[in-house]
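Backbone-to-sequence.
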């Protein structure tokens, strides 16, 4: 078993770099090649690699590195302004997708519980694909890039609250109100503790590493910090990627930023991040999807259009011009781990049918493939500067 895992990892790393280079040659984001590789190697075509536990954990670390690096790229002095700018795109990217998912499912299945869950699935944003594409385009520091990341974090928080509330309702729990209150308190604790720890302990510690004779282990301590924040985020009910982003946010304000960023980029993008994107395609067998074609098509189209239009309109209402609104809307399209987690949890609780899980799987793959193409189009076809 260990030998097969080593072979699988070797194949993933080798061919992800080859296909990534081919994607670049055709002026496409490398993530397209990685996603395609997962589909080819996985159960859809060759059945060569199964999503083994080791690969799953490496992929999880990969997405943490990706969001940690995004946090390092963020200027904390602009957070207040960026958060205000991201609020309306986030709200638009929640309201319209939730409404479209709810009404589509209720119209076809006539089931309120399933409709509510699909609404939550539609609100989830997987910023990982967009972040990778923004890095490849050199636009992570752009106004649009910062807005996409912040809006996705807002979506994550609201999505967790919606999920808690709806599971409480669908379970007929009399304690739904108290459960939501507990979730709100946990989220508030995460942000309060994260900021206090980051400002008063983390930043001073890293600023004084030379005095502590620990300057040579800065990268190791940075990785430990990213994992610590990720763990704390999960403990408070948020996604681990939110914690990784905030860890990078605080460390990015120290003079070790460049050293940490170089190390994280070399480690993450040479191994862990590639495995994450390939693993998305490994998880699904596209030929096993049994839902009605009309439902599948409507599900995918509304999920993508609802997020792009909702977030884009939110950006437009926030005085972004049409080009920037298009970029922000398309950057919010991808769905990934959050949508799959919600669907799997709902299926385990017998709230939704397997048809909805199948539709979610297809939507995750198509949105992950489409978003990089639209983002690249938005930044290269429209030549207006982002600053």
């Amino acid at each position: 078993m260990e030998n097969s895992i080593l072979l699988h990892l070797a194949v993933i790393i080798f061919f992800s770099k080859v296909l990534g280079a081919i994607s670049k040659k055709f002026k496409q984001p490398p993530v397209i090649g990685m996603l395609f590789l997962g589909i080819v190697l996985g159960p859809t075509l060759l059945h060569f690699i199964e999503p083994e536990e080791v690969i799953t954990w490496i992929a999880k670390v990969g997405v943490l590195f990706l969001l940690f690096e995004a946090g390092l790229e963020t200027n904390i002095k602009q957070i207040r302004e960026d958060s205000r700018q991201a609020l309306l795109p986030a709200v638009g990217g929640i309201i319209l997708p939730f409404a479209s998912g709810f009404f589509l499912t209720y119209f076809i299945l006539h089931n309120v519980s399933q409709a509510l869950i699909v609404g939550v699935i539609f609100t989830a944003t997987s910023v990982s694909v967009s972040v990778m594409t923004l890095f490849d385009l050199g636009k992570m520091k752009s106004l649009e890039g910062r807005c996409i990341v912040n809006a996705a974090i807002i979506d994550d928080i609201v999505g967790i609250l919606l999920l808690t509330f709806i599971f409480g309702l669908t379970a007929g729990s009399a304690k739904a109100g108290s459960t939501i209150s507990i979730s709100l308190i946990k989220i508030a604790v995460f942000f309060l503790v994260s900021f206090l720890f980051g400002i008063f302990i983390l930043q001073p510690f890293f600023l004084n590493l030379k005095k502590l004779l620990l300057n040579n282990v800065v990268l190791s301590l940075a990785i430990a910090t990213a994992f610590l924040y990720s763990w704390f985020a999960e403990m408070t009910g948020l996604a681990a990627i939110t914690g990784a982003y905030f860890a990078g946010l605080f460390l990015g304000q120290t003079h070790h930023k460049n050293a940490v960023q170089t190390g994280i980029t070399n480690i993450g993008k040479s191994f862990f991040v590639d495995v994450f994107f390939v693993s998305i395609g490994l998880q699904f067998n596209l030929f096993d999807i049994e839902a009605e074609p009309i439902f599948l098509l409507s599900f995918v189209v509304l999920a993508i259009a609802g997020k792009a239009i909702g977030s884009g309109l939110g950006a437009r209402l926030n005085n972004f011009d049409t080009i920037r609104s298009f970029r922000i809307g398309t950057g919010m399209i991808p769905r990934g781990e959050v949508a799959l987690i919600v669907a799997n949890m709902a299926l385990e609780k017998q709230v939704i049918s397997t048809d909805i899980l199948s539709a979610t799987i297809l939507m995750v793959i198509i949105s992950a493939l489409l978003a990089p193409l639209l983002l690249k189009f938005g930044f290269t076809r429209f030549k207006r500067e982002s600053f």
